[in-house]
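Hello forum,

I keep getting stuck at the same step: I have a sequence, I want structure tokens, and every attempt I make locally crashes halfway through. Rather than fight my setup again tonight, could one of you with a working pipeline run this one for me? It's a single chain of 310 residues.
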Amino acid sequence: MSTISPAALRTINPTEDPTSNGNPGHWPRDILEAYARYRGPYTLETAETILEEEPVELYNGWLVWQEMTNIKERRVVANIVAMLDISARKAGFGQSLPDQHECLLSDGSVVKPDASLISWQRLREEVTPYGPRQRPTLIGGPELVVEVRSPSNRRAQERRKRALYFANRVQIVWDVDEVAEVIWVYRAEAPAESTRFDLADLIDCEPLLPGWRRRVADIFAEQASAEVVAGEAAQAWRDEGRVEGMNEGMAQALRAVLPMLVRVRYAVDPPTNLALRLALADLAQLQELQVAVETSNTLDEWLVLVPRLS
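Reply #2:
Ran it on my machine without issues. Output:
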């Protein structure tokens, strides 16, 4: 089955669609409108190209544009991804994934969480080639999903999306309100109930990451330090004798965090040899590199400061 190009998709006339008001190619404005219609014409197979290239999701056979997050929202998500990722890898659980990775749900919906935490087991067993181009796709959901609340989101729309997540084996959903600096946590065992976490609270990730705790204020901090981001992982490196002394523990934390900070700051993947180059840097150099992430205008400008392999 061939895919349809984004340009072609935008000109398709949803035949006799009563909600289109005579506008050919009209797409639903949100999840609720998509489910208020009859079953739409799109599937992951037919809309593979636009799902890969554009910020859209698929509900009830209809493509729905995602509202793009602003830089402040993306900073908060980046903090969450970095904090969860380091601890998840340290614990041997799995890894945290940024936005735009596709989850194919049981009803044919395709959603793209703002961020997620997924186990190595699900990555190994639930990611499979799918669609005409056999792209690796997560069948179902990750264990934890992070969604940033946008001003246009209606609460009913958020409830509908959480219901989809929980029906596809998601265990925890974080509903992040960047404006109010609050995180609402929902769990599969009681999907209609939530726990509110304010700036002064410690948020956890039980039972996925036992013992993991973070101050909510650190998640929303404009300049969360590498030590704060690495958290107990850096402490564990020191306590377990894997590194010698506090300085080396901080250096290890920076080596783990810097690639993620670079990826978020410049919106591109760093060079594949960056980890090897960072291993050559001492603590003072690494601290300078952390500051330079904010002050360097381009990735190339920042890379000039990183030690080179001989």
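The chain has two domains: 71-220, 226-303. If your local run keeps crashing, start a new thread with the error log.
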